[in-house]
Prior knowledge:
By secondary structure, this protein is α/β, with parallel strands linked by helices.
Amino acid sequence: MRNPFRRKDKPRPSVPEGIRVYAIGDIHGRADLLAEMLNRIDAHLASNPIRNPIEVFLGDYIDRGPASREVLDLLVTRDRTFRTVFLKGNHEWYLTEFLSNPPILKEWQNWGGLETLMSYGVRPTLNPDSGMQTQLAVALDQTLPDSHRQFLGKLESSFTCGDFFFVHAGVRPGVPLTKQREEDLLFIRYDFLLYEEDFSKIIVHGHTPVMEPEVRPNRINIDTGAYATGRLTCLVLEDDKAAFI
């Protein structure tokens, strides 16, 4: 493992001794890629044991890809035997909002919401009217397994480990990390991406797809567009070293 950060004026960013973080980018309904990645993490742990591994998932588990329900099944199962942190993405926000606010489907369907409904056996029309939106919300509410409901209800907005701050989309420049609004953590894009100054910690994020993991002095983007590219990325952090598997 190597350290990709050039920070001559301060110590290299690190995680506490004895901890290894596996950070996984946006999955978007690709249960096949998630299952493969979990196997790779297991193999890495088997050949490189460590006292305290933590798996951090950056959100956007659902939508766009064909198997959102299966993705949540895998994550719920993973949580039973591994130390995991599940962050909320903007796509999970849309799903939970839809249950109580059916008209939001007009927005959600633009981002892959219909694919998620179909993964739960709910069959929408291509352009559902207001009456159909309500029927679909009721159908999803009745179909959603309790384990998935509990999973979605416990998603965190951010996670901090050592010199790294993990979040779905990014942070608002100029606002302390402890004072960030959830809306920014889930949805922010260009104000964050174009900011080149220090955030006090290295921000590990997804939300904006890139062809290759993007490592900057102040942030790391690990959303490699899994649903479209077939590439799911995992960042491994240990001591002051970083690598991808």
